[in-house]
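By convention, the token line describes the chain's fold. To illustrate:
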Amino acid sequence: MSGCRGNREKIMKLGLASQIWDEAYCGPGCQEGPCFSTPTSDVDVGSIVTDAFFNGIVDQSDAGCKGRGFYTRTTFLEAPGNYGEFGRVGSEEDSRREIAAFFAHVTHETGRPLQLSWNYNYGAAENSIGFDGLNNPEIVATDPVISFQTALWFWMNNVHSVILSGQGF
């Protein structure tokens, strides 16, 4: 699920799911919907994020950068497990566009996968990914898979639906 996930979680917590939760609520009427989408392409993210692609990004960093050896293609490819829709909705061209936009965004914004800020982000990412973000936020900076997972969590919950909305980016 993506898009209106936050709405669904709020409704579930309020115990209103049986009263109002259905496809109509989460579908086109939701400003970030649809909630229920599935991969529509057979794109293998690893075939787009090749060694040459990934290393080309890493090679742009300063040789003395501490994080230069921290992030690897292998750790990136482990991260999308919870996000099967990442780079796999729409055409192959759509997949390539989303993956390129993701890497452009994370390298431009922080020079590494997105950092989380504020407890509400750590708490929400913790619940979605399954790591102890509130009690151990440093893990985002010390575990490269968690780092990529939190970047993908942010992307899938804040950017993915906009990219796929057809409104351009």
About this structure: The first helix runs from residue 5 to 14. Confidence is low (pLDDT under 50) at residues 1-29. The chain is about 55% helix and 0% strand.
